[in-house]
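Input (structure):
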């Protein structure tokens, strides 16, 4: 049974960043201005170099299933998950025309009049719909971002009234895109299992009918990008997250590595993949979820499309026995994914704080 989270506070048009942008404000509303310690600072951002470049994994070499190329790529995947928690995947098998189509319908949706978008408000008790998620108090700082999120699989999590009538081909494009990203996640999880010397079907067998959701994020230009965040630092509660960065956007995604924010430079036609909290728990911390955030730009807008892939709500999670030993004692307790999902969506985004839910508190393990 799906968890029933608390209702986020609704955010009205006065806090809609596209509407704020249209008004050409001379100053940023206070609800968006971050405390000094949270503001994006060039001094805490790594310059782009070969040592701070997110690994790129070629899925076509893994799909071949054998040979030197396969073993090199599996090793690269293992290093990506172990040292970064992020990688970009090329030759992923999703038609490039479909990637363009999903970007187009997403942007067309965000460009609709506010009155049209407000027909699909973030519904009580969920994080689906149009608005700002993870907002629980009137004094909480808001992200410089408009979101539109939908539950996709299994069908009982869907809220049909939130699927837009405009643009006309929105729903069919999201359906096709979601089918393809689901297949991609299944393939990637089989290779991640193999990189851990587990049976390739380990995750698929465990997850049952996996939960899948899609979220579209639109970041309008911001007159003071040094004062705001597009998306607060957080790790994802999913098993895997697939991120499509809109073509032509500025470099807005940053990940936290060695206490430094590293920008994720888009690779043409690649998708960004990151490990979620669920994989961290299942691998007993060997593969860690990583904090990431989005920043804004003074003159440019940015679109991203995010797919979250996670176990069925009733699945009980805990470290896989083969990954617990004397050198790596059990770091996480057992719980149902539904419990964690409910906990995750009823707390604001605060780095990796939500993962405290799963940790065995008697031990002092770093995350």
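Output (sequence):
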């Amino acid at each position: 049974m799906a968890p029933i989270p608390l209702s986020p506070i609704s955010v009205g048009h006065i806090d809609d960043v596209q509407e704020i942008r249209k008004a050409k404000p001379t100053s940023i509303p206070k609800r968006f201005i971050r405390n000094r310690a949270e503001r994006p600072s060039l001094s805490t951002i790594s310059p782009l170099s070969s040592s701070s470049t997110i690994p790129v994994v070629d899925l076509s070499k893994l799909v071949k299933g054998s040979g030197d190329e396969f073993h090199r790529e599996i090793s690269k995947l293992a290093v990506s998950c172990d040292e970064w928690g992020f990688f970009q995947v090329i030759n992923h098998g999703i038609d490039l025309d479909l990637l363009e189509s999903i970007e187009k319908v997403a942007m067309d949706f965000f460009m609709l009049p506010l009155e049209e978008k407000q027909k699909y408000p973030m519904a009580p008790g969920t994080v689906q719909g149009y608005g700002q998620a993870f907002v629980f108090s009137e004094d909480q700082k808001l992200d410089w971002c408009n979101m539109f999120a939908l539950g996709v699989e299994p069908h009982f999590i869907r809220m049909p009234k939130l699927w837009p009538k405009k643009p006309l081909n929105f729903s069919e494009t999201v359906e096709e895109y979601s089918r393809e990203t689901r297949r991609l996640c299944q393939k990637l999880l089989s290779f991640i299992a193999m990189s851990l010397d587990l049976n390739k079907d380990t995750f698929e067998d465990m997850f049952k009918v996996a939960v899948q959701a899609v979220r579209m994020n639109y970041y309008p230009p911001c007159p003071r990008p040094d004062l705001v965040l597009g998306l607060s630092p957080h790790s994802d509660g999913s098993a895997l997250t697939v991120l499509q960065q809109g073509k032509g956007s500025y470099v807005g995604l940053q990940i936290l590595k060695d206490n430094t924010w590293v920008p994720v430079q888009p690779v043409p036609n690649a998708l960004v993949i990151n490990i979620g909290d669920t994989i961290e728990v299942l691998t007993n911390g060997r593969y860690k979820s990583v904090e990431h955030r989005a920043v804004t730009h003074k003159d440019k807008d940015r679109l991203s499309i995010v797919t979250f892939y996670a176990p069925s709500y009733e699945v009980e999670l805990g470290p896989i026995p083969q990954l617990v030993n004397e050198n790596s004692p059990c770091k996480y307790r057992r719980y149902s994914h539904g419990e964690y999902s409910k906990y995750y969506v009823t707390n604001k985004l605060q780095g990796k704080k939500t993962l405290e839910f799963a940790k065995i508190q008697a031990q002092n393990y770093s995350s």
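Notes: The domain at 35-357 is CATH 2.60.120.330 (Jelly Rolls). The radius of gyration is 20 Å.
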